[in-house]
Amino acid sequence: MCLLLMLVACSEPGSEGELLYVAPYTTACIGVGPMDCMRVRHSREENYQLFYDAIEGFRFEQGYRYTLRVEVSELETPPADGSRLRYRLLEVIDKEAVEP
To answer: Locate the DUF4377 domain: which residues (predicted)?
Structure first.
């Protein structure tokens, strides 16, 4: 919850977006049902956390580590079973192939 609030607070109009570091492989997780989740972190020093949302304009490929700049905004009427936050890709800063 605190992480979500931090993202919203840091994504004020006019900001240049937030950095997300995306791990090279997804992980099985449970959202509304079983699904595969990306694992993301907000700095290189943090541990990866499950990411249940989608990033508009981003197509994840297994085997690549990404650094993304995203716009994070709060939805006025979020779905009952979904996130209050909307993520939109601004830029792929880095895409690095990782050995399996």
So the answer is: 21-95
